[in-house]
Amino acid sequence: MATTPLIAGIAIAAAAYAGRYGIQAWQAFKTRPPTARMRRFYDGGFQPTMTRREAALILGVRERTPTDKVREAHRRVMVANHPDAGGSHYLASKINEAKDVMLGKTKSGGSAF
Questions:
Q1: By the 8 A CB rule, do 57 and 44 touch?
Q2: How many Cβ atoms from other residues are within 10 Å of residue 23's Cβ?
Q3: Measured in whole angstroms, how far is the alpha carbon of residue 102 from the centre of its chain?
Q4: In angstroms, how far is CA 10 from the centroid of its own chain?
Q5: pLDDT in the model for residue 101
Q6: 97: how many CB neighbours lie within 10 A of its CB?
Q7: In angstroms, what is the C-alpha Rg of the chain?
Q8: In this predicted model, what pLDDT tens digit does every residue of 68-100 receive, in sequence order?
Q9: Alpha carbons within 13 A on the beta-carbon side of 66
Q10: CA-to-CA distance for 76 and 61, rounded, in angstroms?
Q11: Residues 6+ apart with CB under 8 A from 99
């Protein structure tokens, strides 16, 4: 009969230690720095006539993304690749063309380059 309270006390202590360890592990998980996910980039060059799929790949969005998200993605990509910030004029024109394709403002001539 004396072993029952002893076993119950050990079980309660084990549960308390496990809970404490779980809380510490969760706090350490929440405070760790965010890590970048491995992104797979588009292999290959540009197509002669830009498709909606290629435009979505350039901007990093899905093909059925709303217009406000397309504009936001265009701004983000353009800031990183703007010619005034050391980017390429060719890439900037392709990014602008991708935005036009995604918004439905395509020109028949394609890229200026």
A1: no
A2: 10
A3: 19
A4: 47
A5: 93
A6: 22
A7: 27
A8: 999 999 999 999 888 898 888 999 999 999 999
A9: 2
A10: 12
A11: 55, 59, 70, 71, 74
Give residue-wise pLDDT tens across range 44-61.
Answer: 678 888 899 999 999 999
What span, in angstroms and rounded, lies between the C-alpha atoms of 88 and 109? 20
Angle at 47 between CA 44 and CA 51, to 5 degrees: 115
Helix, strand, coil fractions of the chain, as percent rounded to 5: 60, 0, 40
Place of tokens 């020109």: 107
Structure tokens given for 43: 């292999």
As given in the structure block, the two tokens for residue 81 are 């690749």
Query: Could you tell me which residues come within 8 angstroms of residue 91 by beta carbon, excluding any fewer than 6 positions away?
Result: 81
What backbone torsions phi and psi does residue 4 show, to the nearest 5 degrees?
A: -65, -50
Residue appearing with tokens 């050391």: 86
Three-state secondary-structure class, residue 63: coil
Tokens of 27: 């706090």
